Amino acid sequence: MTQRLIIGATSLVGQRLRDIVPQAAFTTRKPKQANDLFLDLMHPQAFEGDGFAHVIVTSPLWLITESVLEVLWAQGMKRLVAFSSTSRFSKTYSPQPEERYVVELLSEAEARIEAFCATHDVDWTVLRPTLIYDEGRDQNISRIATTIDRLGVFPVCGPASGLRQPVHARDLAKAAVDVLSTEATADRAYNLSGGETLSYRDMVARIFASKGKPAHILSLPEGAWRLGFGVLGVLRPGSALKGNVQMALRMNTDLVFDHSAATRDFGYGPGIFKPEFGE
């Protein structure tokens, strides 16, 4: 029996789990390695597994429907570790309906997992990371690095004083594995922040430093950002960034979460923010 199944082989955490538990089975819609299994989360009934007891979900949590859970349970699932996000809390009152919708999806998914596991004798743990990064792969820190390469400068909103706690995907992968071997984590949820708290501006400066470049950070007032996003909405109505000026305004909002419970229960100890992009 395959003891561990990782759902989401191509996610940031899923890719790091390949390094930590290469003997596990990984699901993807496009299998590439010998231990990859095909799984379409929209049509989970077609899944053909060999049976397993432990499941780690790194795919978007809202894709784990009741049907998916039923299929996993039928395969022998007794322990489930699933990744959510602290966005469930930080974007609850966002002016952007799209962001509030994501909050709703995450909340419903967490409740669905808890309810299902309670009635099917499955121990569950939900992990909620803060700002995930993995050099060259993520859409947050790596996007800042790309902007620095292209422009040689990075624009921020005002002082960009909002506090951040970036956490590396490899620290999260290790956390998921540690949770599986710790009974105290059963039927609990944990916030997983990074090992260092720093301002958004200092975070950007650290990325400049990782590339061996002086920190050229351009502070623009809130009004300039509102105007810029307004123009973007007119010129590029189909853009994913359309109207979402909140991304810029949040540079001055603290997004800080305590991970002491995770440290106490399973020894969670993430590293400081030290990206390694190279020059």
TrEMBL record:
Residues 63-192 form the NAD-dependent epimerase/dehydratase domain. Signal peptide: none annotated. SUPFAM superfamilies: NAD(P)-binding Rossmann-fold domains. This is NAD-dependent epimerase/dehydratase.
